[in-house]
Design a protein that fits this description.
By secondary structure, the protein is an alpha/beta fold. The protein has one domain: Glycoside hydrolase/deacetylase (TIM Barrel). The protein is built from 8 helices and 11 strands. Strands 1, 2, 5, 6, 7, 8, 9, 10 and 11 form a 9-stranded mixed sheet that branches. The chain has a two-stranded antiparallel sheet with strand order 3-4.
Length: 271
């Protein structure tokens, strides 16, 4: 059996319920879990390198400044709770640029704990998986995240960013050419980039998805809900491709779509 985890990044207080519903109703109807990397209190002025607002702020009120906690959007919170196929993952705190790529442990701990508290205060379950904004974690951040979460999902791991005590396990992972590994009770997962993205052609996306799903025991498929609604217009062709992906995964007997939580409650041997 091969396993797939769908990770959608950047759900936040400004995310319209209608966008998630349009994207993921086929997944939910098939019984396929959707892992939403959720920003606890999104910074409403986060900008991309070109100076434009981040895409996940597409529904931002021009007069809105500061941060917007997830609990301020009760319609969204109720929708997530009413659809148990959604699994909440902690995605940083504010999604500030590289907010967890820094050495100050006191700041890191404060941000981690504040993020978890905000999610729980909104009525969402305590997250067991952490995703760093931009997939960037410092050495100190990795150590503190591993103390608090059972799963870390990121793009890759670099020796210079790892706690020294992790180096032997990392060397073994590299020698075995395995994408996933473990430190104590914490799983460290890597993913092959954002395979589901409008930056790729549909044929390239399909080829890559099939390659990883059919050759790896566990594949983390990463996407971003707002990429399907650029300029506040739905990209119907891209959305249809996502739905076709859901149909393929649901009908592929040798593949099972799981949540990050499933890896905790029902551990599988990862190679």
């Amino acid at each position: 059996m091969r396993y797939v985890i769908l990770r959608d990044d950047d759900t936040n207080a400004l995310t319209p319920v209608e966008c998630l519903e349009k994207l993921y109703r086929p997944f939910l109807d098939h019984g396929l879990p959707v892992n939403l990397a959720t920003i606890p209190a999104v910074a409403t002025d986060t900008k991309m390198p070109d100076g434009k607002l981040e895409g996940f702020l597409c529904k931002k009120n021009p007069d809105q400044i500061g941060t917007a906690p997830i609990g301020s959007n009760q319609k969204l919170v109720r929708y997530l709770l009413d659809n148990p196929g959604y699994h909440i993952v902690q995605h940083g705190l504010h999604h500030d640029y590289l907010e967890f790529d820094q050495p100050r442990r006191d700041k890191i701990v404060k941000r981690l704990e504040a993020g978890t508290q905000l999610l729980q205060q909104a009525g969402l379950p305590r997250p067991q998986t952490f995703v760093a904004p931009y997939d960037k974690l410092s050495r100190a951040s990795l150590a503190e995240v591993a103390r608090r979460f059972r799963v870390i999902s990121t793009g890759w791991y670099e020796l210079r960013r790892l706690p020294v005590g992790w180096w032997p396990r990392y060397a073994l992972k590299k020698a075995r050419h395995t994408p996933h590994w473990r430190i104590g009770p914490t799983l460290l997962l890597s993913h092959p980039g954002c395979l589901l993205s409008y930056h790729h052609s549909y044929s390239a996306m399909l080829d890559q998805i099939l390659h990883y799903v059919n050759t790896q025991q566990l594949t983390v498929l990463v996407t971003h809900w707002w990429e399907y609604f650029r300029n506040e217009q739905p990209d119907e062709a891209f959305i249809e491709f996502l739905h076709e992906t859901a149909d393929y995964l649901a009908g592929h007997r040798e593949t099972k779509v799981i949540s990050f939580s499933d890896l905790i409650s029902q551990p599988i041997a990862l190679n």
